[in-house]
Design a protein that fits this description.
This is Sodium-dependent bicarbonate transport family permease. The chain is mainly alpha-helical. The protein is built from 15 helices and no strands. α2 packs parallel to α11 and α3 packs across α11.
Length: 323
């Protein structure tokens, strides 16, 4: 693999600020970001990428290529938690295996945004409707994870899930609701809406992303201590399973004829893991699972791995497959 790809990804301001946040924790700096600010910035990022995706979707139209991409996105969001569950069951009980499997079946919007930035830096085109794939892959893994818990835990006959509450958390949690809502508004308003909001949705975007990744660096570094509880099995899992998922995603992308930029974003969606929506749902519905396992592996291992090495590695795979 071309090392310059990794360096190009690392020498990106948002990624460098992620390292700065981690460094602040390691050197015991008193750098802190008040909690409402990262929350506001995460809402802004979801709004901005959803809106832009909707505008791009309005430009491209709902053609066969778009529908096919949406279909494979949903298939992967359902498939990944199933096979990862059985891998995790080798060492973990069904509760923790299902919670972690659901985490890796869902996606990380920040990893997706970082990959988009990487593509723009390399002047590789991609379609805005990939944001719709992101929105569709957020929730199915939660449902699949809960089905796995019901099927494989000892007390399945006594367990009483509040399915309306689970479905509400899966499809109406704040992140999903804002992302999908922004996508629809962008689709309805199209180019006119983009012109009206572009100073807010475009010019400010990378500044906000950079500051948000600074906070993510602080949080990820604080979570590293939790890795002592996970052991080498889960740390290895958190590095190897994204590569496997990305590889499957790339093969599917090649099979259905995605262009390279879309293929990279799809593989990144397959390879990333949720550390917001799914953990919130798992805490609510599977309290037997240990949050330090599924949050620390996703946030402290898989997320840094993907934004440093994973994205260039997946692009290298595309270079080989698309030649």
């Amino acid at each position: 693999m071309d090392v310059s790809l990794i360096m190009s990804n690392i020498l990106n301001p948002p990624v460098l600020f992620f390292f700065l946040g981690m460094t602040a924790v390691f050197v015991k700096s008193d750098l802190e970001i008040p909690p409402p600010i990262p929350k506001l910035f995460s809402l802004y990022l979801l709004f901005a990428i959803g809106f832009k995706g909707g505008v791009e979707l309005a430009k491209s139209g709902l053609n066969q290529e778009v529908f096919l991409t949406m279909l494979v996105a949903i298939v992967m969001a359902c498939l990944v938690p199933i096979y990862t569950f059985f891998i995790l069951k080798i060492k973990l009980d069904a509760y923790n295996a299902a919670a972690i499997a659901a985490t890796y079946g869902s996606i990380s919007a920040v990893t997706f945004i970082t990959a988009s930035s990487f593509l723009q830096q390399l002047s590789i085109d991609f379609d805005g409707y990939m944001v719709a794939a992101l929105a569709l892959m957020e929730s199915p893994a939660i449902i699949v994870g809960l089905i796995l818990v019901n099927l494989f835990t000892q007390d399945q006959t006594e367990r009483d899930f509040s399915w309306p509450e689970v479905l509400r958390e899966a499809f109406l949690n704040g992140s999903v609701f804002l992302l999908v809502g922004s996508l629809i508004i962008g689709f309805l308003t199209g180019e006119h809406g983009w012109k009206v909001l572009s100073p807010f949705t475009q010019d400010m975007f990378y500044g906000v992303l950079t500051f948000f990744l600074l906070d993510m660096g602080l949080v990820a570094a604080k979570r590293i201590k939790d890795l002592e509880k996970t052991g080498p099995f889960l740390i290895s899992f958190a590095i190897l399973i994204p590569i496997l998922n990305a590889g499957i995603g790339l093969l599917i992308a090649k099979l259905i004829g995605m262009p390279p930029g879309n293929a990279l974003l799809f593989s990144v969606l397959c390879a990333s893991a949720s550390y917001i929506a799914v953990p919130a749902a798992m805490r609510l519905t599977v309290p037997e699972a240990n949050p330090s396992l599924y949050i620390s592996t996703a946030l402290a291992v898989t997320f840094p791995f993907n934004i440093i090495f994973g994205i260039p590695l997946y692009l290298y795979g595309i270079d080989l497959l698309w030649r």
